[in-house]
Amino acid sequence: MSSQHQLKRRTFLTALGLGIAAPLASKMAHLAVAAPTGAPVRLLNLYIPHGVPWEFADPALENGQLDLLAKGDSGIFAPLAPYASHVNMMRGFAMAAQQFNHDAIDTMWTGSKGGSSDSFDYLIAQKLGVKAHTLGAIPYSEFEGYNRDSYLLRHGGQWVIPELNPAVAADELFSAFSTPSNGVDESAFRVEAMDLTSRQIERLAQKARGLSSEESKLSQHLSALLNLKEDQSSRTQSCSERPSMPLVEAARTINPLDETQFGKIFDAHLEAAGHAMVCGSAQVLSLHALWVNSNLLFNFEDGPGIALGHHMGLSHGPRGQFALAQRWFMDRLAQVLLPILDRDDPAAPGSTVLDNSIIYISSEVSDGNNHNSDAGETYVAGSPTGTLYTCLPQMLIGGGAGYLKSGGNVINVEQNREHTDVMATIADAMGAPLSTIGDGSTNIVTEAKA
Q: What CATH number is given for 42-178+242-448 in this structure?
């Protein structure tokens, strides 16, 4: 305690001697003795119904590399190409508990037949001591309801209805900000410290270089600040106050059940979730895009302009148009969510929030037209293609704080391996290992690890 007190006092006096205001100098003194911690891994689960038509989704394979542009502009995952270094596609998985077709909906995130277990997001959150947040862009009419057969998440033995209004969700996500146990809001510290001159930061960094990494976070923060000073194009995020979320505010007065406004509601949810991940006000989130049998017309405002319903009209209809509808979701990720996350991480200097996140994209069926939930031959117009096989869509975006392989890979596993192994791998990456999920035991997908 004596040495820590001396270190804090020396750091505080040094900062004051450089003309730094006392409140900021005090924060620096606390950081000087704060024990470094690993980057927190944020998780966003994204559900999109009906799988994909695999002839528009399967990447060209060469030495296990993922080619997101293999299918050209019509490729479902083409919009993610700018973020290819963070994208891994998992191939070969089937639904756990041998569930099939839309009966698999309540198994998808619980791993149990009939959804008798808690969903994996809740299990992870419980281990981490945080809340599992549930958002939903789920417009429905009074004649086509969202009901028990559509639920995905089970928390503490109860099925969860997502928060449909993105403004209400954002109000909850940003209702308060926690202060770390060392007494310093590190993101606020970095924002305040950015106003220092490069000379002040450099002189403080020199003083901090005598400290071992085990003793101090201060040197890490100061090094990151110097890099940011040199690259003024770098974006930082302050979480000392609620971030600006224009899409959320624009959606505040929109009825979330208005099917013509689905695009705005979905974008606003992505914006709220992204900023919550950056700020650390939420670590585990799930977002439902539509519900299992939704027949939402895909000519909604700012949508792909297809006047067919998502379920019967598209997933059971023209496969090329269904591909464009599913591609629209990937485009919104690339346009709204990923730019928010691809920025300096306030909690882990030297890395981005995307480096320290996992976005898990999944569905209850493999191929919407065939309504299968396993890995097998792809049928088009009733005939096998002979060259493609379907499987449950299982995509991971983000680095998981170094746990996952760098992106750009197609990770092939033994055909019809249960998808709960993917969820167990995510849980392990977050420091919340799950040896069982739902009805069975799990194994880590070691092929996905760095």
A: 3.40.720
